[in-house]
Amino acid sequence: CPPPAPRAWKRIFWRQILLTLGLLGLFLYGLPKFRHLEALIPMGVCPSATMSQLRDNFTGALRPWARPEVLTCTPWGAPIIWDGSFDPDVAKQEARQQNLTIGLTIFAVGRYPEKYLERFLETAEQHFMAGQSVMYYVCTEPPGAVPRVALGPGRRLPVERVARERRWQDVSMARMRTLHAALGGLPGREAHFVFCMDVDQHFSGTFGPEALAESVAQLHSWHYHWPSWLLPFERDAHSAAAMAWGQGDFYYHAAVFGGSVAALRGLTAHCAGGLAWDRARGLEARWHDESHLNKFFWLHKPAKVLSPEFCWSPDIGPRAEIRRPRLLWAPKGYRLLRN
Length: 339
What we know:
Mn(2+) binds at residues 198, 200. The chain crosses the membrane at residues 12-31. The protein is globular. The protein has a single domain, classed as Spore Coat Polysaccharide Biosynthesis Protein SpsA, Chain A. The N and C termini lie far apart (63 Å). The protein has helices at residues 6-27, 32-38, 48-51, 88-97, 112-127, 168-183, 186-190, 261-280, 289-299, 334-337, and strands spanning 55-56, 60-61, 80-81, 101-107, 133-140, 155-156, 159-161, 193-198, 201-203, 215-219, 252-260, 304-306, 327-329. The chain is built from ten helices and 13 strands. It is of the alpha/beta class.
């Protein structure tokens, strides 16, 4: 038999490397040394034809060639936003001309408000859509737990009371149902675009109108280098969140997602419906609402994808491609918070 062609050898080599890294990840998940090895996995390259056509309603023509070391577009032609690939001044000017109101919904229940909410809101005032009209919309159990934070001109903070759930898993899964109802109320009537964010993080850099689009997904900082077959999608075929092997583009983080009110109503309805379908059958997806969010974005491709710079985990350590993190995960303390 003739020896394999050079391309075949190359494929075999990379498959062996990825298999080794995948096995290491399963057994040594989260160890700093493994995270550094993971950075060696190539992210892919945006085709030059697609690169020249990347535009955005807020940033105009993008500059993907400014970040040659990372993937700057999706297979369906949506931009992946990295620091340096856009002009922030153009984005701010466009948002002001459109006279936009941007909503930010925060779901904070149990012990999360006392531990995280004040810092989240204080840093949001410094970095989230600075100079824009913003409506924070806090969903929490005791409205009195919302701290007093000095708000700038054109920024408001209404509070919505939500019911307490028995298990932390139920809290996580109830979020989509609560957000869907909220988007049919005040945020849906007054905001043009809405972001939904977890409270256990804080802003560390400018999070501006460059992030706005009809639908926005966030690359998960722990998984953005991984090939699709290693990503933690829901594999139980009985779940509404199930994705077959070979399906899935990227793994998205449920800590940050956004878009127009209509797009988010569709997303939250899909996820809430899938969660209810699973519960009626005694099922629970591996990563709860995040599993259903990933299924939604597989079926309905996001118009814009945010790089891990927009929501970064300091536990991973420094990465050359992470130039300016916008959001940083806070220490979790799950044992205390979920009891």
